[in-house]
Request: fold
Amino acid sequence: MTENDQDIEQLLTAAGQRRPPPEDMRARVYAHTLAAWEALPARPSRPSQRVPWLALAATVLIGVTAASFWFRAPLNVTPELAEVTFVRGTLHADNGEVASRGRLLEAESVLTTPADGMASIRFRTGARVVLDVSSRVVIGSNAVELTAGRVYVDADGAARLTVVTPEFEVRDIGTQFEVGVGPAGSAWVALREGRVDVQSADQRVSMMARDGVGELARFEGTALARREALTSTDVRWQWQREGRAPLQLDGTSVYEYLHWMARDTGHQLQFASRAVEQRARLEYLQGAGTSDETTMEDALRTARFKLTAAGARGWLVDFL
Reply:
């Protein structure tokens, strides 16, 4: 093995395994390379002029890999940032055209709900945003610009999402929260879970929820007007349930159903034991309709579970 062969071998080893290119592409590149090599004039068989077989193999491999990346690159272009997942009533997009469920949203997409319309969108990161009636938003990368109405955000472990208003930015840290814009520069932020930082030109307000108790902060322009406690099960949160699609229960695990319902209603979920939690993850609901059509008691009974209250805002799950 020559010194060049050793260098190439070390380079290929360090590069590690790559995804194999399509077989037809491999065959075409190999055939062209072999034909070009065979067309070379015959030369004396001297070590200094012989093409090392390992070097030739490396050339073919590099060519195939480069071609594979060349043809595959366009598939990675994904300009869409979010998707409309639910519409109640009417939803308008961009220049006023009617938008429906399944519409993909790129940067700078505009969504407007009239007085009879609500909608939900889901970002590629997983964050969910509900638009109330008479609202207007502009979609950005992990951000929503709210110019009218109000939105409800449920990040649920997704990448952080920022809501921008004319006067401030609301930056979430793994939360559920609401942002509203009112007349004459008034606005509010309601925190249901986790933490948000409200940043304006001249101040920063941090809000945090603990043990099912968050808060409501009202602003006049950039100035904080007042703050008050707000529980996660307060009736003010119920509006967002009208603007989201219900959960399809058939084929959904009991754990996923309970987690979804707890976030939807603001309850804290507890399991009587580790065994109950594990069983809930493995047990699936069958033929139970949707979360809006079936009561929790009926859905859990079919899977042999029961639910009891655990304090003012908690649920305790146990075997039936």
